[in-house]
From TrEMBL:
Protein name, per record: Glycosyltransferase RgtA/B/C/D-like domain-containing protein
Spans through the membrane: 54-74, 86-103, 135-153, 173-193, 205-223, 290-308, 314-332, 341-359
Signal peptide (UniProt feature, chain positions): none
Alphabetic keyword roster: Membrane, Transmembrane, Transmembrane helix
Length: 470
């Protein structure tokens, strides 16, 4: 089949999902940088933008991440203007490319009747959609991972080498996932070829050599400049890179399971488990291949993250969510057509419900991992306007992450005011939202018992409150 014929065949499948992501980008174009994107996108991008790429390294208080994403945003801002809409639309090439990469992967492993279902289960995932609504480096990571995998499966070593090199200078997790790409490729080849000799493994390593050299060069330059790689104990997040205690390791394992099941994904795991059990004695080649796609990145990430105190985010597992959606789309083909439609509808409903999963106030929630967070941006702006109207100085208002960054960093404005970190003993006001996870149980109780609500704004599942001392 020619390339043109292949594209014509793909268009009815991919266009609805591309339209979904274009519409989502248009809807959120005015939303500010959120969660870790404040650092990884805005602060990094603005550093390279204002320095005009005159230096490779960011200041020491920001350091720890490779430069690719920040440089990409800075270049886009120089071309089109440093605004929030430009920032969001700079994500569109990766979002549209992601649809194409998921389609190629689905077409490779799924029967024709399962391809559309596979894309549906992937792009209705709450965390995939939530990250697609942000200026998020994890979307780029997911695109590059799938690009490399597809290029290797299609025996396109030059394209795969380019993708792997970009992964090597994108984020620490993309660097870690280089090993997952190689191990996945190796195991898929072993399943297809029946055996792997040393010479075959050596040949399969060739596309990875440029990425390995670039990664070593980056780590060497970073160490030479800063005196450390990975993390600095003196950085704001240095404590998160400490070794975990046995209790914390057990907690991390529980958190990993929770992240994987959260926001409606539990139904996909249950469906996959039941259907795998019923067909366990006769697993097809495609089933085993899709299990490799799922389990390898899950194992690689888990075996590294579980040993550290770093908070484990939902977005870390985007690659796993894609593989899970494709696996379930493949497995449901075993079911008769009427029952299959019912199962798919239940799965779609379960994923859609994930945007409404809000836990009690004292349980931290991954607000950057579902679309439930979207009202926050408007409510925050309204509360900032209220503070200015009431002439309440920002330095008298304590708050918490992600509301400690200035509007210059979150909204790309010229306003460099910022809130100090919360201190309920000394401050007159507290700017609180249920989007913030950094308030302790004791602080939340104190706010309810010892403070009064001066102003409250609500929309959807999000609220913001200004508390004043009694």
């Amino acid at each position: 089949m020619s390339f043109a014929a292949s594209v014509r065949q793909a268009l009815p499948v991919v266009l609805p999902f591309m339209a979904l992501l274009v519409g989502l980008t248009w809807y959120v174009q005015g939303n500010g940088f959120f969660w870790d994107s404040i650092l990884l996108a805005s602060k990094y991008g603005q550093w390279y933008y204002h320095t005009r790429f005159s230096t490779l390294f960011v200041p020491a208080d920001l350091a720890g991440y490779p430069p690719l994403f920040g440089m990409y945003l800075a270049a886009g801002w120089h071309l089109f203007g440093k605004t929030l809409p430009v920032s969001h639309f700079l994500m569109l090439p990766f979002l549209l490319g992601l649809v194409w990469q998921v389609y190629l992967l689905a077409r490779h492993f799924l029967p024709p009747s399962g391809v559309w279902v596979g894309l549906l289960l992937v792009f209705l995932d709450p965390t995939v959609l939530a990250q697609a609504a942000q200026v998020a480096p994890d979307i780029v990571l997911l695109f590059l991972y799938l690009l490399c995998l597809n290029a290797l499966l299609q025996h396109r070593p030059f394209l795969s080498s380019i993708g792997l090199v970009l992964m090597a200078v994108h984020t620490p997790r993309s660097q870690l996932l280089l090993g997952a790409v190689f191990l996945t490729y190796l195991l898929l080849s072993w399943l297809e070829e029946g055996s792997l000799t040393f010479s075959k493994i050596r040949r399969k390593l060739l596309p990875f050599l440029p990425a390995a050299l670039v990664l070593l060069a980056w780590l060497g330059l970073h160490y030479q400049h800063f005196g450390w790689v990975g993390f600095s104990r003196s950085s704001a997040w240095g404590s998160y890179a400490a070794w975990a205690s046995p209790v914390e390791i057990l907690r991390n394992l529980v958190l990993i399971c929770w992240r994987l099941l959260d926001f409606g994904r539990v139904s996909l795991w249950l469906t996959a488990g039941v259907l795998l059990w019923t067909s366990r004695k006769n697993l097809t080649l495609s089933t085993r291949q899709l299990l490799i796609l799922l389990l390898v990145p899950l194992a690689v990430l888990s075996l590294v993250l579980v040993w550290f105190t770093n908070p484990i985010g939902h977005r870390y597992w985007l690659v796993v969510y894609v593989a899970l959606g494709l696996l379930v789309a493949h497995l449901v083909q075993q079911i008769s057509r009427p029952r299959r439609l019912l199962v798919v509808l239940v799965l779609v409903g379960s994923l859609a419900s994930g945007h409404f999963w809000v836990y009690p106030e004292k349980i931290a929630k991954g607000w950057d991992a579902s679309l439930a967070h979207l009202p926050y941006f408007k409510l925050r702006h309204q509360m900032l306007s209220y503070l200015d109207q009431q002439k309440i100085p920002w330095q008298e208002v304590g708050s918490d992450f992600p509301n400690l960054a200035s509007p210059a960093e979150t909204d790309l404005t010229a306003d460099h005011r910022r809130f100090p970190a919360k201190d309920l003993k000394t401050q007159r006001y507290i700017f609180y939202s249920n989007v913030f996870n950094g308030f302790t149980d004791q602080e939340l109780t104190a706010l309810q018992q010892e403070w009064v609500v001066v102003q409250e704004l609500k929309e959807g599942l999000v609220y913001v409150r200004l508390y004043g001392k009694k």
